[in-house]
Input
Amino acid sequence: MTTRTRTLAALSLLSVAANLGAAPSVYPTGVTRYDTATAYNSYVIFSGQDKNTHLIDMNGNEVHRWNAEGFPPVLLDPALTGGKRGHVLVQLASTTGTSNEGNGLRNQAIGELDWNSNVIWQWGAAGGAQDAYAAPVEGKASSQVPGGSAKQHHDWRRLPNGNTLVLANLVHPVAGFAAPQVLDDVIYEVTPGGDIVWKWVASDHLNEFGFKPESLKLVKNGYSPRGKAAPFDYLHINNMSVLGPNRWFDAGDQRFNPENILIDSREANFIVILDKQTGKVVWSLGPDYPAQVRGPRVLPRPVDQIVGQHDAHLIEPGLPGAGHILVFDNQGEAGYPRVSVGVQPRSRVLEIDPITKQIVWEYTGGDSNGPEWSFYSSFISSARRLPNGNTLIDEGMNGRIFQVTSKGDIAWEYVSPYFAPTPVAGAGKPVLSNWLYRAQPVPYNWVPEGTPRSEKAVTPPEPGKFRVATN
Output
């Protein structure tokens, strides 16, 4: 039975009317719509709740699987792997337990797998570091890794020089904080041999993030919602990207040096650029914004209230909007003080000019002829610009990945079938969910030649009508 037939059969069994707005069209799973005239064709990679990493085609067929999960999985550009295709960054080992969901304290080891899941490089408690692109590395024990485990969370990036930037957690006391222990964020640059050659710690730059005195007092006096014994996750940095080549630096703006690093803080609602040489903040947005005005939206306009954002990054050269910041604005409660999301919470995807700090494009559920709350993920999620001007969006809370055109029309939509028990939003007990952290578009030429793919249109039923599958 094809993916499309399974989807239509599920529709008839569930007797659920399809909604052509921004909400998922069909449950339980699969590709629910695919307009071949407007969609951009690529593979998509993500880690499901089954703890595997999946590569799917435009019809939702799994064309490859790695038996490891990534937070997130990153399929590497062959330009970074010596021309080898299908290499992915994933987590290789973790301790059991759920007390630190969303961070890296249970993450013991990270690494790079090839297409056949052979370990090409690893770093962490699983045995130090090794690199398949150079001579064998000897004597790299886990002592090279701070605390003996990777503690990577939320992001990592392979650099052109072969090193890997790793966003990780660091638990330690910080002077001036009421909490005995802080769950800090740290960035390491790790060589293929496992040595740390650059390090950045967030708390060293606390006065550079733009907090007002009264807000900084709230930060320092805060405690973990899990109690005073748990380390205080005061920033929860959930994204780290390297700027890469961009038109701002080409025009002479040193803040946008291609080696500089962009991060964002979910708990504090800010996006900043770090100077790679000094570690200092050289550009910032937030943590304070003007309130959003409900009603007709005028573009461009100054950036208004962002809350709990994810996946901020510069759009790459050659893509529509190159040099602008693309960010998934979750509108999930966060901030010092906390920002209310209102009676009708909804998420947004924002494209921001970093020089004028104005919104130049945005997407909400209303752009797909649905209520704005029909597109909402209060945590996780991502958005990536595609070569034809579409945007690939991961509405992570609902396990939904979809493409929208610049006008907001949905060109492709997929709902993850990988449900499993998770403690997230379980009120103290595991519940079934298909949530997924991030989705990455993968060009066809990044995987081995001969990898199958399907590009058959999928038309959703008209609103309020049912379609019964036939054999």
